[in-house]
Amino acid sequence: MKLKNILIVVRDLERSKKFYKELFGLDVILDNDGNVMLTEGLVLQEAGLWETCIGREIVPKNNAAALYFEERDMEGFLRRLESYVEPIQYVNRLVEDSHGRKVVRFYDLDGNLIEVGAPM
Hints:
By secondary structure, the protein is an alpha/beta fold. It has a single domain, classed as 2,3-Dihydroxybiphenyl 1,2-Dioxygenase, domain 1. The protein is about 25% helix and about 35% strand. The chain has a 4-stranded mixed β-sheet with strand order 1-4-3-2. The protein has a 4-stranded mixed β-sheet with strand order 5-8-7-6, with no helix packed on it. A hairpin with a 5-residue loop joins strand 7 (about 100-105) and strand 8. The protein is globular, with a radius of gyration of 15 Å. The chain starts with 5 loop residues before the first strand and ends with a strand. About 10% of the residues are buried.
């Protein structure tokens, strides 16, 4: 068995494609009727499709999982994050974890938790 992708649910695909392109450099590989595959294996799915598929409502900011990115230039990333055109809701601003690694945690535009950390 092989893990192929990670899927997250979003309300506005265009808005989310822009968010993940501008902040993380992810490009669209496939854009197909409510599903968008980005580089690095991230898939965005339109919320209505997901709710129909699972028969339940989506719970934003449930803090049960996070997308984790590593960034060598944390200062540059933080500048991009701070100057993003839409407000960013932080879980915690830049902190140093128990391993001495700098990390920042925040939500994407749909309440999916993201952690960005400097490589160890």
